[in-house]
Amino acid sequence: MGVQIGHRAPDFELPDQLGFQIRLYDVIGAENIVLFFYPKDDSPGCT
Fold this sequence. Notes:
With 47 residues, the chain is mainly beta. It has 1 helix and 2 strands; from the N terminus they run E-E-H.
């Protein structure tokens, strides 16, 4: 699934660095948000 420039990202929930669950729509507007995605470790796109 891709997100086009200018379109809203779908809501999702992931653990933060401390293991607490963070939901995207809960923090939008409350904090600065950086979404960072990288290929699987040791794959041609990452090494």
